[in-house]
Amino acid sequence: MSKTSHLFEHILTHYRGLFATFVLLPVSALYGAYTTVRNLMVFQLRSAPVKHEQRVQKVIRQIEDWKKNGCTEKLCTARSGWKSMSELVPKYKLSHRKIDVGMFDILEIFEQRGTVKVEPLATMGQISRNLIAKGWTLAVLPELDDLTVGGLVMGFGIESSSHKYGLFQFICASFDLVTADGQCLHCSPSEHADLYYLIPWSHGTLGFLVAAELKIIPAKKFIRVHYQPVYSLDNIVDVFEAASRKTGENDFVEGLVYSRDMAVIMRGNFTNSIGTDGPLNAIGRWYKPWFYKHVQTYLKNGQAGVEYIPLRHYYHRHTRSYFWTMEDIIPFGNQPIFRSLLGWALPPRIELLKYTETETTRKLREKFHVVQDMLVPIQYLKQAIQYFNDHFNLYPIWLSPMAIFDNNRHLGFVHPLPKKDGTVDEMYVDIGAYGTPLKTNFDNTSALPLLEKFVMDHQGYQALYAKTTLSREDFRTMFDHSGYDKLREQLPFCTQAFDEVYDKISSKGRVSPVEMRKLENKS
Ligand SMILES: Cc1cc2nc3c(=O)[nH]c(=O)nc-3n(C[C@H](O)[C@H](O)[C@H](O)COP(=O)(O)OP(=O)(O)OC[C@H]3O[C@@H](n4cnc5c(N)ncnc54)[C@H](O)[C@@H]3O)c2cc1C
After folding, report:
1. pLDDT score of 260
2. How many CA atoms lie within 13 A of 327 on its CB side?
3. Using CA atoms, how far apart are residues 370 and 87, in angstroms rounded to an integer?
4. 146: closest CA among 44, 49, 31, 65?
5. Shortest CA distance to 314 belongs to which of 165, 161, 474, 522?
6. 272: which residues sit within 8 A by CB, 6+ positions away?
7. Labelling 48: which of 219, 253, 443, 475 has CA 20 to 30 A away?
8. Three-class DSSP labels, 454-497
């Protein structure tokens, strides 16, 4: 390594906060401005919902070419792996044949049916802006602007309305999928139902998603948020579970746990007017405190409270601080002076954060840093908080209730938990742990496998954008593969074209950013 690269590595490793502030933020802002302009131009030039069919044909043609060439390589989408919302980078992008699924349009709003038809590269930011302007919103709108429909369908997606509407997959009325034999299949509960139920979590291993129809609901201007501080583990569980099960009463439910015995449980409702019981708080403005810091003040004051938050500010309340991971990147980022001067530039872009990882920060991340979402039946919430407290001591913890609906046919990778009496409990909770645990002698290389075992023992699931150490066998136990295996055999060319999910999401398919840079330089 040359002296200059040594120096660069030293700065990236030991002055990461300053580097992020003075280099990554301005570059992110410039890059953000560039991509906005480029996307607008590309959008102006290429956006044409009426040309959707031609774009589908283009995907089909690429598959026909692959067949003509003897189906020698496996296939994946052409989207850069650096853009994926994960701390890892897909290695298979280097070896697989890339299929350009450049489809980013909002195709049509069907007000009567209460759905919107979109292409897979449409993002949450694009859809929410477009829909809200027309008085609509997605029933489940995951947090970050850059999350794509394709990623949320093929991976997983959740928001604080998921107790009512379920995971992102459950707001999908239908999918259009181009399979490995070059057919475009329309999949819904009544057409190609096996495929419809197995597309979510399949990570593009059954075909290429070219459109999805998503459930929309009427939007209102504000969310009235009720903040309830609670001061014991039993109370955290009781208040959170009661709020989550009142699906008719609460449009949104979320919990932020600040220690084993302290949390703030939030209930939100759509409204068009600001009541007299609380102030308007535009929490998304650049100079405002990071949301989780603001929520914590209710614990300190010891009193419940109400606020009215503008709709898009509510949806993106954790974006500026990437939940609370920004504290590890820019430790002084929530200081009032920093927010006033540079708060508008937050957050730095995920791909830049990944691209500037060094060998030293990789080692530190792998050993001491945790980014995991674990989905467990809500009946095990108490044990789960206790587990995270004892084995991680990492706060805050994010609690987002979510339904996994029973499709009565036991189809799909995830199923709700049957109780001892045979009834089914569809209510789960996503427990998000992000940051550096304070547990003495913590080492994630041993803590993660134990956590995965805890989740499996409690009939839970792991979000697959995050790192997993599950063996193939355990992975197949956690996620039901019975229908998937059959379908892959039945669909022509499927096994020739696509890896299994495990091969894409485990260490076989994904590597650290540092390793990916090395591989890219070699190739
Ligand atoms: C900081 C951070 C915050 C996050 N916050 C949230 C959150 O608030 N809520 C939430 O639900 N999730 C969140 N996530 C996780 C996120 O939901 C997942 O990463 C999800 O998979 C979407 O990511 P993506 O759009 O980058 O998709 P990608 O990672 O690009 O894609 C995911 C998978 O889908 C496949 N795929 C994508 N498009 C297609 C297609 N057209 N055809 C076939 N296969 C396709 C890809 O090959 C890949 O296997 C967060 C992640 C991070 C790192």
Report:
1. 97
2. 16
3. 10
4. 31
5. 161
6. 220, 221, 222
7. 219
8. HHHHCCCEECCCCCCCCCHHHHHHHCCCHHHHHHHHHCCCHHHH
pLDDT, tens only, 118-152: 999 999 988 999 999 999 999 999 988 889 999 99
Residue of 52, 154, 214 best suited for mutating to test ligand 1, as the one with most atoms within 8 Å of CB? 154
Q: Who contacts 407 (Cβ-Cβ below 8 Å, separation ≥6)? A: 189, 197
Coil, strand, or helix at residue 222?
strand
Give the phi and the psi of residue 137 in degrees, each rounded to 5. -150, 165
Q: Which two tokens stand for residue 207?
A: 């075909």
Give the C-alpha distances (Å, rounded to integers) separating 361 from 9, 14, 459. 9, 9, 34
Report how far ligand 1's centroid is from the alpha carbon of 506 (Å): 15
pTM of the model: 0.92
Angle 323-329-332 (CA atoms, 0-180°, nearest 5)? 90
Q: What are the phi and psi torsion angles at 437 (to 5°)?
A: -65, 150
Of 350, 332, 331, the closest CA to residue 341 belongs to 332
Give the per-residue pLDDT at 193.
95
Q: DSSP states of 382-444 as a string? A: HHHHHHHHHHT----EEEEEEE----SS--SS--PEE-TTS-EE-EEEEEEEEE---STT--H
